[in-house]
Specification:
Largest sheet: 3 strands, antiparallel
Number of strands: 3
Strand order of the largest sheet: 1-2-3
Helix content: 55-70%
Strand content: 15-25%
Number of helices: 1
Shape: rod-shaped
Radius of gyration: 26 Å
Number of domains: 1
Distance between the termini: 81 Å
């Protein structure tokens, strides 16, 4: 069974004794990262929706101009 050995000078990092892999056990940092990712995705969707709305308004204004001539 693998044993996790603390990495000196890094309180959230551990080395897997079998594979030699470094494992980050900082759950708070990970949760903040995921939260930031979700917030950015939400903002991107909101901006995309606003772009669509603006394009629709432009199309409607163009139709009004064309019908008024």
């Amino acid at each position: 069974m693998a044993k996790f050995i603390p990495v000196t000078g890094h309180p959230n990092l551990y080395r897997d004794s079998e594979s030699g892999a470094i494992i980050n056990c900082d759950t708070m940092g990970y949760n903040q990262y995921i939260s930031t990712l979700n917030r950015r995705e939400s903002q991107k969707k909101e901006i995309d929706n606003m772009k669509k709305d603006i394009q629709e308004i432009k199309n409607l204004l163009q139709q009004l101009i064309n019908n008024g001539s």
